[in-house]
Write a sequence for this structure.
């Protein structure tokens, strides 16, 4: 029986950030289909140490595994990129050890499909292997957005966008199937790549509806004085940093008496400085984000740069909280604005929407309840990942025939 090799740019466990949430659920679903081997990077030694817990969570369904702590810094990767003409996204993750492990698995095991999670992992898949490429988002478009912001790094971002898109296009041309997290991302790639023979599909994210359940057991907190607005996310990630700075500086002043909690690990100095405002709280890492989502009067997602689907929005909706999202944060989410959440473009529109919901608790509760129902209707992970059996099973059926 065919086996699967799963490649990931970050160890897919624990599922405590956006990319790990998707990669973990996909890995778990693939393990139900057959033996899966894992090759992934880790951010540091603490991240790599999660491998035993990952094995235990899969209940013995994981074969060989190689988890490598990534040590190449951005400066070194940037120099390599200039010398080789490659995008930094590739040189940052390049590794001879990773390449040798992949070659070993392909030589020694009956691998029917290599499932690569995130574009930079495609560089380790040799020609001839059946590749399912989960791009998740169109990363080259993200770098285009960075370049449009201007500044001294704009030329670097433009170069990265060009070089990375060329690699994304080459990868999709040789992949058996290319996946994106939303129909919008898939359509954007297809329109730009112009590869009529490429099989490009969307594989949507879900949400853990048992965990993100307002009736679940988790630590609750007492609400303080004044309305609480909450943003959740990894706070060393540039789009999140941009979002909270912009919100604190342009939207929050137009919402009297409201407090703004920025909830997420690794806040950079620019985020920590926001906490000098009496109305802004920067929490850093918290034991359970549900505690803060549950305490929020409103959850805000004011991202100006975003790709794919925002798990933070899905999680807040699953928790039955009213969400106010920017158009970028709403893209790819299958819900009805005005019923399941509010979508507001720009500082004035967001401030107005927040003030209106804060003054109408009945409408806020109605939107929160509708959000939870929408997640229950369409966002179970089992439903979202059901196509994996066909995506991976193609090679298994051909082999059996």
């Amino acid at each position: 029986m065919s086996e699967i090799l799963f490649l990931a740019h970050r160890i897919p466990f624990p599922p405590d950030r956006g990319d790990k949430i998707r990669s973990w659920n996909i890995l778990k679903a693939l393990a139900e289909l057959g033996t899966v081997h894992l090759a992934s990077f880790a951010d540091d030694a603490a991240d790599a140490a999660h491998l035993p817990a990952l094995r235990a969570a899969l209940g013995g369904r994981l074969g060989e595994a190689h988890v490598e702590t990534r040590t190449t810094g951005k400066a070194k990767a940037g120099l390599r990129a200039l010398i080789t003409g490659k995008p930094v996204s590739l040189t940052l993750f390049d590794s001879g050890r990773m390449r040798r492990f992949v070659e070993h698995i392909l030589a020694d095991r009956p691998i029917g499909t290599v499932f690569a999670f995130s574009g930079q992992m495609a560089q380790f898949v040799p020609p001839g292997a059946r590749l399912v490429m989960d791009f998740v988002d169109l990363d080259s478009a993200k770098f285009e957005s960075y370049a449009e912001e201007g500044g001294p790094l704009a030329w670097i971002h433009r170069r990265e966008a060009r070089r990375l898109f060329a690699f994304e296009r080459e990868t999709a041309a040789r992949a058996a199937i290319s996946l994106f997290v939303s129909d919008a991302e898939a359509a954007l790639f297809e329109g730009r790549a112009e590869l009529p023979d490429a099989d490009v599909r969307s594989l949507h994210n879900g949400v853990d509806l048992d965990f993100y359940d307002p009736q679940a057991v988790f630590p609750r907190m007492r609400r303080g004085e004044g309305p609480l607005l909450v943003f959740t996310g990894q706070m060393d990630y540039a789009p999140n940093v941009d979002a909270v700075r912009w919100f604190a500086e342009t939207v929050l002043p137009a919402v009297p008496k409201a407090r703004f909690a920025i909830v997420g690990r690794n806040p950079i100095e620019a985020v920590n400085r926001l906490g000098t405002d009496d109305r802004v709280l920067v929490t850093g890492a918290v034991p359970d984000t549900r505690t803060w989502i549950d305490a929020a009067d409103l959850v805000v997602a004011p991202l100006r740069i975003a790709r794919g689907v925002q798990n933070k929005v899905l999680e807040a909706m699953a928790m039955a909280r009213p969400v106010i999202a920017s158009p970028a944060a709403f893209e790819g989410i299958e819900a009805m604005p005005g019923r399941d959440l509010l979508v507001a473009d720009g500082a004035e529109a967001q401030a107005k929407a927040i003030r209106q919901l804060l003054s109408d608790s009945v409408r806020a509760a109605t939107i929160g309840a509708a959000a939870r129902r929408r997640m229950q209707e369409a966002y179970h992970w089992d439903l979202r990942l059901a196509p994996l059996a066909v995506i991976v099973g193609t090679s298994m059926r051909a082999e059996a025939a």
